[in-house]
């Protein structure tokens, strides 16, 4: 399900700052060579993530779900000079490709890339996060949120991708409720009801939940 008319999407991208040559390369190579390229953040959402990062000026970023590294490089654009982006993915098959992109971006010293189970890795990262981006297995969104919320500074942000799940969160689609949709419904309600944050669900691409910790 596409949330924006294709021509409007194109118009929006035409009036959005362009992605860098490297990001364009990652975008293209992902679509050519990697399964499920729709998982890539892409031009419009990538520029939004970059914009958020520049506004927040984070020193410590956590990303859960690296995929091919596109969103990590976008988020890293707003890092403070001595800042660090920690990105975690379970797919070791993409490791060499992602590390190559990180090196090509000149971010080998700024990006720490972990391969493995994020639920086990996150507790070993001993920092306070200014910005967290969750874009991994939907079933564990609530677990990731609960794991990081106390480690996000006051005024820090948690952003979760795919929270509209191709529109499946709507009541008219709930007769055939799959596991991922059920998990996202629970996650969205939990964030909405959490008194520790102020939140907005943006219908950008497949939905971004943006929560600011009070």
From TrEMBL:
<dbReference type="InterPro" id="IPR050362">
    <property type="entry name" value="Cation-dep_OMT"/>
</dbReference>
<keyword id="KW-0489">Methyltransferase</keyword>
<protein>
    <submittedName>
        <fullName>O-methyltransferase</fullName>
    </submittedName>
</protein>
<dbReference type="InterPro" id="IPR029063">
    <property type="entry name" value="SAM-dependent_MTases_sf"/>
</dbReference>
<dbReference type="Pfam" id="PF01596">
    <property type="entry name" value="Methyltransf_3"/>
</dbReference>
<keyword id="KW-0949">S-adenosyl-L-methionine</keyword>
<dbReference type="InterPro" id="IPR002935">
    <property type="entry name" value="SAM_O-MeTrfase"/>
</dbReference>
<keyword id="KW-0808">Transferase</keyword>
